[in-house]
């Protein structure tokens, strides 16, 4: 019974370590990310910490289980032909290994819900709002708070010959209202560590909403992550994250009538996408995109 009590206490201590570590703030270096990308948004940090905590918890449970397997293999290895003493029940240990999995799952579920709610949280007054319209097989990005020379909001539309560039400011809360003109697409920027299915209908563009705060300037490839038809694999775009001042200057240039290329060149950015390029798919795709 004493040996069983020690094992029960050891299991309880391991469980306490799991529950504690899943709630800790995790360091952000390559080793502790366990293969998880670093990300460039505030929300990516929360998801990375959840991943790191979950992996550490899994390692603790794994080491404990391996230890419990190896201990009897070594401790009770065959030494003679005599039948060892038989133990029918160990109530403390049975209670631990019955309750422990439930508590581990409950803890992981608890922190997962917290992070999910934080990632999907919507602010009352985001700094910027972008309307993302997906269609077979490209993207249209609309800045609804702007007005171009024609009186319509400034937008950027991709074609079979041009990768659409979505210009975003850093250090501002950006709301994406995502809509589809036809089938289910998926708005995915790998460096955001997040993607959202673009589901037509069901208050299209209203329920399909999420927010991010980009923390690092740069050019990041974006893709459709939902099989949507013949040319799904080539439905790419680029996110160009710039400073707040450059973003304001870009929108002003667009409102004055400049194209996306010209406005980007105006603020010292490459006018064309640098992370991906159009694919030569022939006349069929040009016709499909209205080119």
TrEMBL record:
Swiss-Prot/TrEMBL catalytic activity: 4 Fe(II)-[cytochrome c] + O2 + 8 H(+)(in) = 4 Fe(III)-[cytochrome c] + 2 H2O + 4 H(+)(out)
The EC number(s) attached to this protein equal 7.1.1.9
**Cofactor binding description:** Binds a copper A center.
Q: Where is the composition biased (Polar residues)?
A: 272-291
Query: Any keyword Transmembrane helix?
Result: yes
Top-level taxon of origin: Bacteria
Cofactor(s) in the UniProt record: Cu cation
Where would you say this protein principally sits, based on its record?
A: membrane
* Keywords on record: Copper, Electron transport, Membrane, Metal-binding, Respiratory chain, Translocase, Transmembrane, Transmembrane helix, Transport
Q: What residues does the Cytochrome oxidase subunit II copper A binding domain cover?
A: 125-253
Topological relation to the membrane, as annotated: Multi-pass membrane protein
- Membrane-spanning residues: 51-74, 95-114
List localization entries.
Answer: Cell membrane; Membrane
The keyword Methyltransferase is annotated on this UniProt entry: no
Q: Which family does it belong to?
A: Belongs to the cytochrome c oxidase subunit 2 family.
Q: Which NCBIfam families match?
A: CoxB
State its role.
Subunits I and II form the functional core of the enzyme complex. Electrons originating in cytochrome c are transferred via heme a and Cu(A) to the binuclear center formed by heme a3 and Cu(B).
- Name the chain's protein: Cytochrome c oxidase subunit 2
């Amino acid at each position: 019974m004493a040996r069983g009590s020690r094992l029960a206490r050891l299991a309880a201590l391991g469980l306490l370590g799991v529950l504690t570590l899943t709630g800790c703030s995790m360091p952000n270096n390559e080793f502790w990310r366990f293969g998880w990308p670093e990300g460039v948004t505030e929300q990516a940090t929360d998801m990375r910490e959840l991943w790191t905590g979950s992996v550490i918890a899994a390692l603790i449970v794994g080491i404990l289980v391996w230890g419990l397997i190896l201990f009897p293999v070594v401790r009770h290895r065959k030494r003679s032909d005599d039948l060892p003493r038989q133990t029918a029940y160990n109530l403390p240990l049975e209670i631990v290994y019955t309750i422990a999995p439930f508590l581990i799952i409950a803890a992981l579920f608890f922190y997962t819900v917290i992070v999910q709610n934080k990632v999907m949280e919507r602010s009352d007054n985001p700094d910027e709002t972008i309307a993302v319209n997906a269609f077979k097989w490209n993207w249209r990005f609309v800045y609804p708070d702007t007005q171009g020379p024609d009186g319509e909001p400034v937008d950027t539309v991709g074609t079979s010959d041009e990768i659409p560039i979505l210009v975003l400011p850093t250090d501002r809360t950006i709301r994406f209202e995502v809509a589809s003109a036809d089938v289910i697409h998926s708005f995915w920027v790998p460096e955001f560590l997040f993607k959202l299915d673009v589901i037509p209908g069901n208050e299209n563009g209203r329920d399909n909403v999420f927010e991010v705060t980009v923390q690092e300037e740069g050019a990041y490839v974006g893709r459709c992550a939902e099989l949507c038809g013949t040319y799904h694999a080539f439905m790419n775009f680029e996110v160009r994250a710039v400073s707040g001042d450059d973003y304001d200057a870009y929108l002003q240039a667009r409102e004055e009538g400049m194209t996306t290329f010209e406005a980007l060149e105006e603020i010292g950015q490459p006018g064309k996408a640098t992370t991906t390029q159009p694919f030569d798919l022939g006349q069929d795709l040009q016709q499909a995109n209205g080119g």
